[in-house]
Amino acid sequence: MTTHPRPSPTPPTPPTPPDPCAPRDRRTPPDRYARPVVELTAVTKEYAGGVQALRGVDLTVLDGELLAIVGPSGSGKSTLLHIVGTLDRPTAGRVAIAGHDVAALSDRALSALRSRHVGFVFQSFHLVPGISAQANVAEGLLYCGLSRAERGRRAAAALERVGLGDRMEHRPHELSGGQKQRVAIARAVAGEPDLLLADEPTGALDTASGRSVMELLHELNDDGATIAVITHDQEIAASLPRSVRIRDGRIVSDEWHAQPGRPREAP
Ligand SMILES: Nc1ncnc2c1ncn2[C@@H]1O[C@H](COP(=O)(O)OP(=O)(O)OP(=O)(O)O)[C@@H](O)[C@H]1O
Ligand SMILES: [Mg+2]
């Protein structure tokens, strides 16, 4: 009996690891509002000293939304943003971000969740001084496990995206306020987070630069980004599809504005 050698099985192709920072496809309208990115249920936050900064907040933000969070100074807006962004934990209540229950996560797991799912933009830019715009944006991609060269390429693409292709090598002190905020936005979105949180992003800018930063946020939202913007500016709030009003740690109104092509009511 002759034996034939078995054909050697083709080695299985190793699964390609998902790229957490892969550029996202432009959302088609039916994909929008398909899943919640933020779910807060009965969230309270009490600071040491007894300040009740949040008193029972329920808030759901769906994928692809662009909303304003408005309210007077001290009403709890930044506290809310810190809790939504998992920079802080609530005293009580449930917080889920991109489907992950925050209470179940260790601090380490929480910071991994944050770096993967949330991008932040602050009033005062928070750029690293002394390094280029491109290096600042590349820093935001450190967790992606990409090579240095690839981080540089993606940072360059993000800067092109925000209209700063000709300012890659400028350091923060060589940029205008509006340009600094664009670098901060490029850094926040370069890793394609599920959620972009902006705390008074136009607060330090003149009217024209503020307007162009808001236009950029609208463009990013048109491309599928979910964005929450804290603002004191009523005009900005009214220009966004949804505005959530907060006072003394409570949500006092949650309005949907008619927008061309957008739902009038919460989807
Ligand atoms: N780390 C903290 N420790 C103690 N109290 C705090 C802390 N952070 C904020 N607070 C208090 O919690 C309340 C809400 O503060 P928060 O910063 O959320 O307000 P805000 O709406 O962002 O105000 P603003 O518009 O001035 O930025 C305020 O009364 C504030 O004094
Ligand atoms: Mg604040």
Helices, strands, pairings?
Layout: E1 36-46, E2 52-62, E3 66-70, H1 77-84, E4 92-97, E5 100-101, H2 107-117, E6 118-122, H3 133-139, H4 148-161, H5 177-189, E7 195-199, H6 207-222, E8 227-231, H7 234-239, E9 242-247, E10 250-256
Parallel strand pairs: 3-8, 3-9, 6-7, 7-8
Antiparallel strand pairs: 1-2, 1-4, 4-5, 9-10
This protein binds adenosine-5'-triphosphate and magnesium ion.
Adenosine-5'-triphosphate binds next to α1.
Give a verbal description of the structure.
This protein is an alpha/beta fold. The chain has a single domain, classed as P-loop containing nucleotide triphosphate hydrolases (Rossmann fold, 3-Layer(aba) Sandwich), CATH 3.40.50. The chain is 28% helix and 24% strand. The strands form two sheets. It has a six-stranded mixed beta sheet, with helices on both faces. It has a four-stranded antiparallel beta sheet with strand order 2-1-4-5, covered by helices on one side. It is globular and about 55 Å long. 39% of the residues are buried. The structure holds adenosine-5'-triphosphate and magnesium ion. The site of adenosine-5'-triphosphate (ATP) has 12 residues, from helix 1.
